[in-house]
Amino acid sequence: MTFLQIVSIAAGAMFGIGALAAIWRIIRGPSILDRALATDVLLAIAMCGLGAEMAINRHTDTLVVLLVLAMFAVVGSISIARFMAKQDVS
């Protein structure tokens, strides 16, 4: 087993544990902001996983998917922030 395979397995395990923790917070989150933050974390973990896969396999085939995920994360965060700001004013 090469060093790259060991690092890949370790990174995959860490990404998996982080994703499970984020999903747990989405399910159990006491407030909408906790769930929104966990969703952002889950998207960030997915983006890091795609980036790691691209680096390990030395290709850029999924770069478009990575950019679309980043766009969804930014738009989602902004829309939730605007929604919560309107609720605070009322």
From TrEMBL:
Protein name as catalogued: Sodium:proton antiporter
InterPro entries named in the record: MrpF/PhaF-like
Subcellular location: Cell membrane
GO molecular function, one term: sodium:proton antiporter activity
TM segment ranges: 6-24, 36-56, 62-85
Topology versus the membrane: Multi-pass membrane protein
Keyword entries, A-Z: Cell membrane, Membrane, Transmembrane, Transmembrane helix, Transport
Gene Ontology cellular-component annotations: plasma membrane
Superkingdom classification of source: Bacteria
Main location: membrane
Family: Belongs to the CPA3 antiporters (TC 2.A.63) subunit F family.
Species this chain originates from: Agromyces protaetiae
